[in-house]
Specification:
Elements: E1 2-5, H1 11-23, E2 27-32, E3 37-42, H2 50-54, E4 59-63, E5 83-85, E6 89-91, E7 97-101, H3 108-121, E8 125-127, H4 145-158, E9 162-165, E10 180-183, H5 191-197, E11 204-207, H6 214-226, E12 232-236, H7 254-261, E13 266-268, H8 270-274, H9 277-289, E14 294-298, H10 316-329
Parallel strand pairs: 7-8, 7-14, 8-9, 9-10, 10-11, 11-12, 12-13, 13-14
Antiparallel strand pairs: 1-3, 1-4, 2-3, 5-6
Helix pairs in contact: 3-4, 3-10, 5-6, 9-10
Amino acid sequence: MIVVLKDNPDKRQLENLIAWLKSMGLDIHMSEGHSSTIMGLIGDTSEVDVDLINALEIVEAVKRVQEPYKNVNRKFHPDDSIIKIADDVEIGGGNFQVIAGPCSVESESQVCEVATRVKEAGAKLYRGGAFKPRTSPYAFQGMREEGIKLLLEAKKQSGLPIVTEAMDISHLPLFEDVDVIQVGARNMQNFELLKELGHLDKPILLKRGLSSTLQELLMSAEYIMAGGNEKVILCERGIRTFETATRNTLDLASIPLLKTMTHLPVIVDPSHATGIAHLVKPMAMAAAAAGADGLMIEVHNDPAKALCDGAQSLTPAAFADMMDAVNAILPHAFRG
């Protein structure tokens, strides 16, 4: 349920309304937009007297929300959320950012060289996998704790905030100095992990599951936000369909759809979506044109020798070329 307040509501009346609603066991989410202030009521609102609230002098309207996700819902928060990362990087609300780097951390020279190159091309955040969830138990699983140390060294040298994936609650103490914690597609519905991330004061990049609906993605984001962490970024990374020509099928329609459903930033990962390096640039351009708030791109200094996902990784030169193409698209992007 949402309660739309009139302009400049009486402070005493508003405090009394909030106290009454909280006495019913409801949580209150206040959202001050450009044209109105909205109170989002979270919890069991079945016993709330809508007519009584409507009759209050400070209330403009009361509406019941049918969707199961509340904190994530744009109806609760009409304006785009802007997620601040580090001191000078923001995503959402017209702030388009590119996250780039190798699929996995392999060596200090690799991560530091790639960090320098992607920064020169315009990336504002650096990605790299320290822990790698792999389909095969025999595939490279990442450098784990040592990989995080190398990412922090790359951050020190380049100045770029870092993004890396956490696979398990037990790993979280290692992520204290990581700027953005990524939840991979395979962990999108790891609800115990999501609840724990909800207690952190740190941006969370939540990837859509391989076979998940948009509502399921938003419900996973709701788990994080219900714990108190409102710093959530959604990532469309392709879904599993019958098509085998690409690694996954990039659901570009999800971008404008999610924009109507939620206030959270939406970025796109065309690297995992396609699995083919020469498709990354056109899909990145398409994602930018469709209104995405950013991109996540895999970049490796020597893709042919990459220990993980070399076939979908761009060289630094190819990444710079892609950035030029995307920057040319942005002024004409769809904004709803």
